[in-house]
Design goal:
Length: 80
């Protein structure tokens, strides 16, 4: 799982803390890096109003905070 975050993002920090607390492995990529910003914008090309953080699951699904990120993590069993 890849967690796309941005600098100074409280929601991003919250989800990272929650994932770490539950020992969920993830790779973090910060949109502070121009290459990562381009990558996440490409992932969200069909959702211009998406809100960070964004998670790309191993199966390729992409979910942003405005799309029920926490609900998706619970539904998939990643969060208990």
């Amino acid at each position: 799982m890849i967690l796309y975050s941005k600098p100074n993002c409280d929601k991003c920090e919250d989800i990272k803390k929650l994932l770490r607390k539950q020992n969920v492995a993830f790779e973090e990529r910060s949109s502070g890096d121009p290459a990562v910003k381009a990558e996440v914008l490409a992932l969200l090309a069909d959702r211009p109003d998406a809100i960070m953080p964004v998670i790309k699951f191993d199966d390729g699904r992409v979910v942003s905070n405005d799309m029920g990120l926490y609900r998706e993590l619970k539904t998939t069993g990643i969060l208990r």
